[in-house]
Amino acid sequence: MAKSEKVTRENASGGRRGLLMSELSVESRRYMASYALFNQAVADHLALHPTDVQCLNLLGLEDGPVTTGRIAELTGLTTGSATRLVDRLEKAGYVVRERDTADRRRVLVATVPEKVAEFGRMWGKLSGGWYELFEGLDDDGLALLIGHMKRTVEFSGAQVERIRGGELDG
């Protein structure tokens, strides 16, 4: 039996919703794979690791310099892995380490404005057509997508914790 036949039969009793859930499952996997491959291409272009690219993305959402511990929180990495990530970004010129003026014992990681601007220009070139993808949606449709993305981020974070916590072992 072909995979598509199996999916159709399994969901025949679920009606339209079952079919839509199956299609959503397939398209979600395609979406995640396409984004992972896109992220890898961006990382290759910048001679960075894919996680480094996403860390730069997340640092752009922060208000100023952060600790390596904060980078670990943002990325879900251990502090040791976050330190190695910062080492790579520093070597590539995207961040610098600086002493916290309020607490000289703390070291903060700050982005380098020129490199961040270069990173932003690259995203600008890649984002042409982004808004056109959503022109056919009304405000309710956009709100639905935003809600979905927020729920997906929360769900993914919980799944990462399960994986790293060893819940899938055994």
From TrEMBL:
Coiled coil: none
Source superkingdom: Bacteria
InterPro entries, per the entry: ArsR-like_HTH (IPR011991), HTH_MarR-typ (IPR000835), MarR/SlyA-like (IPR039422), WH-like_DNA-bd_sf (IPR036388), WH_DNA-bd_sf (IPR036390)
Domain HTH marR-type residues, every copy: 17-154
Name of the protein: MarR family winged helix-turn-helix transcriptional regulator
Native source organism of the sequence: Streptomyces atriruber
